[in-house]
Input
Amino acid sequence: MIRSSSCSKENEGDSTGRSTDHHPAHTMTLPIPIQRLNQASMALLLWAAMSSFIFLQAADYQSQTTADPDISVESLKLRVIPLEKSELQVETEAWQDLLKSKATEIIELEIQEISSEGEEKDQINQLVVEKVRERTLIADRMTIVMNAFQTKGGDPAEYKDYMASVTGIQVDIKEIGKTSSRVISWLKSEEGGIRWALNLIWFVVTLIASRFIAFLLGNITRKALDRAAVNSSELLKDFFVHAVRKLIFLVGLIVALDLIGVQSGPFLAAFGAVGFILGFALQGTLANLAAGIMILFHRPYDIGNFVTAGGVTGKITRMNLASTTFLTGDNQQVIVPNGSIWGDVITNITGSETRRVDMSFGISYDDDMDKAESLILDILEQHPKVLKHPAPTVKTNELGDFSVNLICRPWVKTADYWTVHWDIIKQVKKRFDAEDLSFPYPQHDVHMSQVS
Output
């Protein structure tokens, strides 16, 4: 708001101290849109000033980590932590300049080596090996800065390509002696072959230790699950145990790869991309995995159960997320995809502790039905593996074409099912023979009449 006022010149007061006369003030107010325009302009100017200040700060930043090219790896990793992306880019470019300078020195020495001979050539060759070692140290430190730059959101692809183009051992088949000498020197150097040999040893040791730790933690997980949930599914326990073991081994593999210089970030990204592509190509396999998860959590059967599922009847011996392994009665191993099992009817024959044995015996129409029922019931009551509760049932069930059929239904423990089934049939046959009760054969009466 802008105000303008006018007033008359003050009249001089008289000797009595009378005050002078004042004219009233006049006020003028600008329209609201103009006020907002003024406010927006001031905000824009303020933003421009702050941006210029920040830009000047970034432009004035000088590399701090390259002041000592021999800085230790541990110190360098700590120094790059508080730096911003723009500062890390400056640091990366500074290390690239050092790498370029060292690569230029090596090239100059190699040019001198071409025109030299004898002892002078050997001296230059040794000097080249030393410079290569120094270049390796610079490349290692530049890698640390590039990784920090990438972590803060930068794109180090250009710097990585440059570093890859100026590092490494160049092999010239025309100069076998020179090449072999450099290779041998590289193998003997602490920053070359010795370091890679140690890295490979640590790689193998880390994998072995990861495997051992994974096995140990898997056993601990198994014991913890056994104590925590006595009635939990064996399939679910196996799933968690295998998951823990594979996860621990995967972590160990990532650590081992990091020891030999393989960055885990791109590796995991590539693994995820490949997994995404394979997901479309292996839809059937993914369906089996989903079915395996459903079976694990709904628990229609467990390891050791005798099951009919997916068109197969047998004992469950093993299961993973993709398939279930059956052991049939004739000792065949049948592997069925979980998708076929989950999409079919599942009959768990040994899912309960007790089962009823259903048998039927036929006697002749001339035999005493009450006597036959009494004999069968006596056999069931005397059998040690027939349960008292529920009580066994023996009843006349059907008047068939050739026999009077009696049903026999004792209850037994699931594990004793076939033992009781076979024993009862054998004992009933012996008792019926001893008591002159017959098992009639199927017969047809044929009546013939003479037609004139």
